[in-house]
Amino acid sequence: MRVALFGGTFDPPHRGHVALAYLARERLSLDRILVAPVATQPLKQDMPSAGFADRVAMTRLAFAHEPATEISLLDAPRADGKLNYTIDTLAILRQQLDPNDSLYCIIGADSFLTIGKWHRSAELLASCDFIVGARPGFELTDLKAALPTGIAATSLPSELKHTQVFELDGPNGRDSLLYLLADLAIDISATQLRSALRGETDAGRFLDPAVEKFIRNHHLYEHL
What we know:
CATH architecture: 3-Layer(aba) Sandwich
Order of helices and strands: EHEHEHEHHEHEEEHH
CATH superfamily: HUPs
Number of helices: 8
């Protein structure tokens, strides 16, 4: 079975998130995608956000009609109050899977550009294969420059349409693959989303109607 973890703040979940999950599932023939809102994103601790329960509820609405996709609480608030790190979440997920299952991590290109700052980033990149959704104008030089020290990327032949494949040479001889999806059509910036949430532009361009309704009914993001 091919299983992917798609983590993030989902604050709020938008059409770009759903498009990335769909494209990853179609391109890599994924059997399950676990969409996991994170309680505390270590690199975004000071950003205003909706509460965890609200983000989980919105994510359920956003992905309600996506096949093979389920909402996961793997990144829920920790009992010890510590931060949520992706490498720990993946380790927990790995323990729940069959040894023969293939594990992937789905991430957007913008987030991948900060991968070198992630907790134990070199080990993280060696822990599973990565699926990166490239935004328009994304450069391969940006991807390679983002890799932490000790990780090298080698381009491999690819039979997958609009997909570039790289082998990541990790620590202790552990290699993984990175699939760069070069045709993610929906590129939603934080600026565009904030403008829509303030009512300055049509939120329907970026949000599922059920998500937009939830936001209005629960008076979320009114401080933006």
